[in-house]
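Sequence only, no structure available. Ideas?
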Amino acid sequence: MSNTTLPRITHPEQSFDMLKSKGVSLVAFLDTVRPRKDDSFTVRLQIVFNRVPKYFSTNINLSRDQYLKIVNNGVRGDLLEKKRIIHTLLKKANDIICSMDEFSFEIFKKHFTRNLAAKTDLFSTLKEIEEELKRNGQVSTSDVYRLTLRLLKIHTNKKKLSFSQVSIEFLKGYENWMIGRDYSKTTVSLHMRSIRKAFNDQIRNGNVHRSIYPFGKDKYVIPEPKNIKKALSIQDIAKIFNYKPLKGTPEHYYRDLWLSLYLCNGINVKDLCLLKYSNIKDDTIEYERAKTMNTKRNSPPISIVLLPEIEKIIKTWGNKPIKPSSYIFPVLRKGMNAELQQKTIKQLIKQINKYIKRIAQKVGINANITTYSARHTYATTLMRSGTSIAFISQALGHSNIATTENYLASFEKDQQKEIAKQLTNF
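Reply:
I predicted one. Tokens follow.
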């Protein structure tokens, strides 16, 4: 099966004496007997036991010249990454054989190939992450990984994509492909972060070698999403507060829900929907963000001052009768699974956005207002009033101050421009 004119590859730390004591030999070689359509050949591991050889694919395909370069020292770039993968698989095979009391191909194959393809395949890893997130009730985040996987399959037109194929050049090409199809930098960033997460998971689990990691300084840098200004002025907030919708109408209801997002520390829609009467503690509302509930331990709850305006909204629209276990707002129902919850929340966001945009037009606000604007407006209003970044960060439930500083960066620039104008305000 193998070509004896080409040299074999062994791992520098291979336990030759131990392998010999078990009657086993282990090498990697280029299988030139079975050429591929592109005239390359697959690198395989060969294990010989009792004079019987067995072969295991590394999923690395090379030309003869590329293989000879790998055998010799001094390779760089993509070939160096492939050499390291071959060495990683040789080391794994070596360790499995040495750990066996008595060698058998059946037991070796079971340990060596168990989930090996899935663990070295980006598509399989993205699918695993998506399913785990869905099981944890993080449906919105799982949707991101589902879309990342779908786009990658469209881009590559492949059923599998090994991590070794996801090079710096691949990622740059993928970014250009998405931008060429009018995906925003924010969307590109979101999908690239999903790929990076998949890499980090498999590197941490020892299934992918860190040497092929394509992200970081002097490698592929994920584009920063454009920080679009979403905050309203306090004057615009006053216009929304003072607007008088017809009582009991959908416009009244969705306006009040938008104001609740703003007044409740810029809470997001999902967390607002998940609030229960048991979250009300005297003159505060205390809750833990659904976003971080499954990722952080012992995170302090977010505390919201129960302003008279919030109390009025709850009194007007809150579920009756008041029970500690009941949701405050009549959006979600007991027994809903995570997917139905997410679908309901998405529909609510659409409705809030539709009505708040109408109200903005009526009161003369020249801005694209959404539910997300409420969160940014809350943070920016505090900043403009002189509130410390540390307090704002805690109120928003951010894991670190750097996230909050990024939130507020564009607004600080606006403030700098206004101050600069004073230099010529004669």
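The chain has a mean pLDDT of 87.
Hope that gets you unstuck.
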